Amino acid sequence: MCGRYASSRSPSDLVEEFEIEAGNVRESVQEVGQNFNVAPTNEVLAVVERKNREVPDETVRKLTTVRWGLVPSWAKDTSIGSRLINARMETVAEKPAFKKAFAARRCILPADGYYEWYTAEEKKDGKPVKQPYFIHPADGGVLAMAGLYEIWRDKSVADAESDEAWLWTCTVLTTSSTDDLGRIHDRMPLLVERDRYDAWLDPRSSDPDDLLQLLVPAAPGRLEAYAVSTAVGSVRNNGPHLLDPLPPDGSPPTGGEDGSTLF
């Protein structure tokens, strides 16, 4: 599964990468800022494409914010979101929680890379040792993770025209890991290649078979992985130092660039 990732690209970089007009960037995007330890329930950046209300045959691509942890439109409350941070490619077109979003509300979740934990055979104090790895594009480009989003009506807010009446949430699609990354974890995020951005985001497309063919696991050698400090395991820790590779001897870094202590 994908349970943590890093997202530090500026809105201007993402606008260029995903060909979004400057006027289609939601104000809340500026409030998110860099996050090197994105965790479930965090507000995250998402690229979505919506039908143009004024011109039905056209669509508008936007950079917006959503909460990580999908809340289906039929949910009684938002608590279900913490259990729906990932959607398996193998069942996404049939699962009630994801089926409607997969057909019409697909998104791209931009990332620098994601974290995954490798469980070693050795034990410490009787418990298996878990080593986090940071997995990222080898070329330093944007990791365009395939996602779904939903819009949930908060009925406790009487004014349906208010932004507070609607909660936007998302989930990350996952698949079996490629051989070179499978040694770390058996699941990985699905990626959307640049030449498939348009087809994946288009809300007018809904055929499950066509959509699934757009998604691919990373090609061998496309992603690189290296061990990082266990500090990433705590949501209290944040900053670019979380991306620092462990020293050759395997000992943790002594501190981050901002002077914080890692543990």
UniProtKB/TrEMBL annotation:
Key words, A-Z: Covalent protein-DNA linkage, DNA damage, DNA-binding, Hydrolase, Lyase, Protease
Ranges for region Disordered: 238-263
Molecular function (Gene Ontology), one example: peptidase activity
Signal peptide: none
Family matches, as Pfam families: SRAP
GO biological-process terms attached to the record: protein-DNA covalent cross-linking repair; proteolysis
InterPro entries from the UniProt entry: SRAP, SRAP-like
Enzyme nomenclature, EC number: 3.4.-.-
Family per similarity comment: Belongs to the SOS response-associated peptidase family.
Protein's name according to its UniProt entry: Abasic site processing protein
